[in-house]
Design goal:
By secondary structure, the chain is mainly β. 7% of the residues lie in helices and 39% in strands. The chain contains 3 helices and 20 strands. It has helices spanning 31-37, 40-43, 151-155; strands at residues 6-8, 16-19, 26-29, 44-47, 58-63, 70-74, 81-86, 96-101, 104-105, 110-111, 115-120, 126-130, 135-139, 163-167, 172-173, 176-180, 187-190, 201-206, 211-215, 222-226. The chain has a 4-stranded antiparallel sheet. Strand 18 (201-206) and strand 19 (211-215) form a beta hairpin. The longest helix has 7 residues, at 31-37. The termini are far apart. The model has no long low-confidence stretch (mean pLDDT 89).
Length: 229
């Protein structure tokens, strides 16, 4: 399979996960098994998404340290979507899929754009940037009332109450106040306070402003770190 993004889970097998670009879903390599046996068949696996999910595939990928689920962003569709996959006990036969669409606010025009980057903090909250409009979005499944099941789990329409939208500060285009002139292409969670701004600081990149943009979850304050030149 083709994969645009990879990430290590940090689980007991140090599993390396791949987002499957063309058809969606995930693949993985069990590093512990590979180093022990060098058996490619035993060391790898995959989960295809539910057949009812449209084909445009996966981009960013993230591992949830709380429940072991794997998430990816569905890049080419609007509204943007995040896909949650659970491997189960005997993948690929036991793989399951859930879909969560980014909400859209018709009053303000905010939300609903492409999801690209994705990462998950130490509490299991999923973060993504809505790239075309300069919004940082979070999805906290603890807020779902109730958790979606059956058809609701793959419709993407359930659990809108679990989303929060945070406009990234910066100038907008003159003819559209909802579109930022900066390009917030990717993001990650600073789980270990490497930058000194606090554990689980959310970091978005400002590709058009030569910067990293930090968001503190507790204070809701932003910090822009400009690359000097």
């Amino acid at each position: 399979f083709e994969s645009p993004r990879i990430m290590f889970s940090g689980d007991k097998d140090d599993t390396l996960y791949f987002s499957v670009q063309r058809d969606g879903g995930i693949g993985w390599l069990n590093i512990r098994e590979w180093e022990k046996t060098h058996d490619a068949e035993k060391s790898q696996g995959w989960c295809a998404p539910d057949s009812k999910i449209p084909k445009p595939g996966a981009y960013g990928i993230a591992y949830n340290p709380v429940d072991g689920s794997i998430w990816y962003s569905n890049l080419q569709l609007t509204p943007g979507r995040l896909i949650r996959m659970d491997r189960g006990s005997n993948p690929p036969a036991t793989c399951s899929t859930q879909v969560y669409e980014a909400p859209y606010d018709p009053k303000t025009g905010a939300g609903g754009n492409h999801t690209r980057a994705i990462d998950i903090d130490s509490n299991g909250v999923v973060w993504t940037n809505l790239q075309g409009e300069g919004i940082l979005a979070s999805l906290d499944l603890r807020k779902c009332k109730p958790m979606p099941t059956g058809a609701d789990a793959i419709s993407g329409k359930a659990c809108k109450e679990a989303w929060s939208l945070y406009p990234i500060p910066g100038p907008t285009f003159q003819n559209d106040s909802h579109v930022k002139s900066d390009n917030n292409y990717y993001m990650f969670i600073d789980k270990y306070n490497a930058l000194g701004l606090g554990k689980d600081e959310v970091i978005a990149d400002g590709a058009n402003s030569d910067s990293l943009i930090g968001f503190n979850q507790d204070t809701k304050q932003w910090t822009r770190m400009r690359v000097p030149y």
